[in-house]
Design a protein that fits this description.
Blueprint: E1 8-11, H1 13-26, H2 31-46, H3 57-65, E2 76-80, E3 84-88, H4 94-112, E4 114-122, H5 130-133, E5 140-146, E6 167-171, E7 179-183, H6 190-199, E8 208-209, E9 215-216, H7 219-224, E10 226-227, H8 233-248, E11 270-278, H9 285-300, H10 316-328, E12 330-333, H11 334-347
Parallel strand pairs: 3-4
Antiparallel strand pairs: 1-12, 2-3, 4-11, 5-6, 5-11, 6-7, 8-9, 8-10
Helix pairs in contact: 1-2
Amino acid sequence: MSLSPPTEVSVPREALEKFVRRVFVTAGVEADAANVLADVLVAADMRGVHTHGVSFLPQYVERILTGRVNPDGHPHVVKDDGAVIQVDADNAMGHLAAVFGMRQAISRARAFGVAAVAVRNSNHSGAMAYYPMLALSEDMIGLATTQALPTMAPWGGLDQLLGNDPLAVAIPADTERPIVLDTPFQNSFPLKIELWRQRGWPIPADWAFDAAGKPTTDPAEALKGFGQPAGGYRGVGLALVMSVFAALLTGSSWGRELTTIPGRANSGEVGHFFMAFNIAAFESVTRFKGRIDRIIREIHSSRRADGVERILVPGEREAECEEASRSLGIPLLESTINALDQLAQRLGVEAPR
């Protein structure tokens, strides 16, 4: 089957950010918070992570307008033990809670070398790489994880009990680009599979199981089943460990406690977990970042297998996409543009054309 590429429309970054800000303000979010939300969402699209960018905007607005998310929510510290902080997100947008939590971790790591922040009473927070990357300019390593909807079964099981609970880590370099890992522990997810079903495309055989636990390339059968973990049983194990940080240490919902409705988390029951490591507390920053540079260059210069043009470290492809987006505009699917147009008409704001 020939897979024709979907139609894309290029939108300038400034125009898209302005639109997102207006949408959130119109929906009742404070201007400063709307600025943060616009930056986080558009940053995901600039880095090519379109599954967690502005395509989510209609859903976020619906959650605000129906009272599922608090547009006036203010994340705040509820327990302060120096290097360990607990934050209540106040049922705010998860992106706001995540930025607050990561910044708290960075601030405390300046004083203690290492800091950990547990966030509860939050919501979906989008692409996780944004948050640990806030630590890069502070010469720190950032780490983040979050609770996700239960879309995976235990290895060998049939019940969806586990979320993909991604891990994101950002490590600063000197002259090279930073290492930025943002990985879920599931090979795909229902939204992406649904997009392929709509286009009539078969999905790769390692994306999902059908309801009987058999690998399938039929997206319709995959949507009746559950996701395949990355790396087999190892992916399930890593997702479970991340859920301990994101759900249990934060006092948030775990697995089916998070939802009984496919694709919809209970409001204010998502947890996040953040850490910051101040490099200067362990090692000379200059030496550390210089060694990261050398490691990256060594990986780049590795002998390549047949057909491989370049060897990259985590985050490089996204960084290149971001650089291209700054000069060429952000490529969005026409279906996403149409959804944003409909949202603009509903709220009476100018569409991002």
